[in-house]
Amino acid sequence: MNRLFKRVLLMLLILVVLGSIAWLFLGRGNDHTALFRTEEVTRGDLIATISATGTVEPEEVIDVGAQVAGQIVAFGKDKFDKTIDYGSVVEEGTVLAWIDDSLYASDVAQAKAQLAQAKAGVLRSEADLGQLQARLQQAERDWYRAKKLGPSDALSQSDFDAALSACEVAKANVEVGKAAIVQARDAVAEAEAALRRVQRNLDYCTIKSPVKGVIIDRRVNIGQTVVASLNAPSLFLLAKDLKRMQVWIAVNEADIGNIKPGQRVTFTVDAHPDETFQGEVGKVRLNATMTQNVVTYTVEVITDNSSGKLLPYLTANAKFILGERNNVLLVPNAALRWTPLPGQIASNGGKRSGMPSTFDGASSPEPFSQTSQEEAGQGTVWVLHGSLIKPVRVRLGLSDGAFTEVQSDELKEGDQLVLGELSQETTSSSSAVSPFTPQPFGRNRPSSRQ
Known about the structure:
Number of helices: 6
Mean pLDDT: 81
Low-confidence stretches: 27-33, 346-374, 431-450
Distance between the termini: 57 Å
Radius of gyration: 49 Å
Largest sheet: 6 strands, antiparallel, barrel
Strand content: 25-35%
Order of helices and strands: HEEEEEEHHEEEEEEEEEEHHEEEEH
Helix content: 25-40%
Shape: rod-shaped
Number of strands: 20
């Protein structure tokens, strides 16, 4: 009897404990309310931009090469009488370097000798022509006398024919002499051309600056041999003017339609992270490139570099300015994307279990498509009023990717916009943490508002 009583008492105790636990969880579950992540409507300035990266380039670069082969024997002097090197400032015609010219100088000497020989050949041909003309005159006089005598007892037929033949040969020899003079003069012209060619090669041994500018790159050293073949070897890279620079920016094909010549651009470089540089679009190159099925266009941005802070080939982080708005209402883009589930919206001011009323006594809104509204320049945000939320229609303006300009008579600065709903698991786990449990330093808990 005693054992039976103990069993009954133990079973009653178990039932009481189970009932208490069930009442605790069921009662609290029926009394929960939804928690929302919110953010205030703010007023401020907004700039819509397209971000891209590029490289700072000199506006005009000249590659100074060598047209002859040889060994670099010396460098020239810049305008400050210093040896040509990286960063040297040079004028047009400044000697940059000398190539060993011993072989080319001997070629010039040989060409000059050949030219002198050709000119001597002209003089000899002219002298030979004088002799031939004198012989022709003698032959003509002999032929004149032979014609007077004619074939007779005083002049035989053979002598008559010989005089005629000698006259004809003398005439032909004169023509040959004239042709020899023409040939000799052509030889002079050929020798002069050969001299000009070897003289030009000799001049090429002196590398001069074609324009006024700054040496960006020196690609040879003294003692180095350059070989000129089909492609001229590059010796120096010369920037014509570093006070005006360009930024070559790769822009995705999806954004290139928004880029126009004259458009304002701002950019920063890692060398001067605290300074923002200004520029404008010069032109859009049409030769697009494809990398891993991504098409990009190169946009040339012109910028002033009078300060000299921009160095060639710095990496630039650029922003193309699409539009600017000042002192406008700004809402987070997340607020425009969030919509309550259909089952969460209460009609006729009624409350769904665990959800606040949607309107202050108003009926629920008609179903709508957030995407279609944004495409039409309109959107909807959900404003929190105590335990109530209600939709507000807004007209959309510019967006910078994080915030969007809106216009609405029902929306004002400071209104709380719903960005999302906190899950019950997150709320329960947050409330279950003991206040005596050590928390990590600097831990940020999500702010919530009911």
